[in-house]
């Protein structure tokens, strides 16, 4: 048994299943890819056989490792990204 991602025509993962290869091969109306990571909503890039997470914010860009990167590096400490100002905001616990 292995984990497979069902992908639609846009290469978006729409389902994940655990099945044997014979079952997956018998599913002629669906496209399955052996899944090493990712989940529903991720995109499968067949050129490099990698799953890409959904873009977290419009300003973030995909790096050479297919990880999303913010416009500025995250500072040390407890920070969250604030997209309207495109900056890191420190989270202060009271």
Descriptive notes:
The protein is mostly beta strands and 94 residues long. The protein folds into 2 domains: 54 residues, no CATH class; 40 residues, no CATH class. It is 6% helix and 37% strand. It has 1 helix and 9 strands. The strands form 4 sheets. Strands 2-1-3 form a 3-stranded antiparallel beta sheet. A hairpin with a 5-residue loop joins strand 6 and strand 7. The longest helix has 6 residues. The model has no long low-confidence stretch (mean pLDDT 93).
**Termini separation:** 48 Å
| H/E element sequence | EEHEEEEEEE
Query: How much helix, percentage-wise, in residues?
Result: under 10%
The largest β sheet comes out as:
3 strands, antiparallel
Physical arrangement of strands within the biggest beta sheet: 2-1-3
What is the C-alpha radius of gyration, as a whole number of Å? 18 Å
Structural class: mainly beta
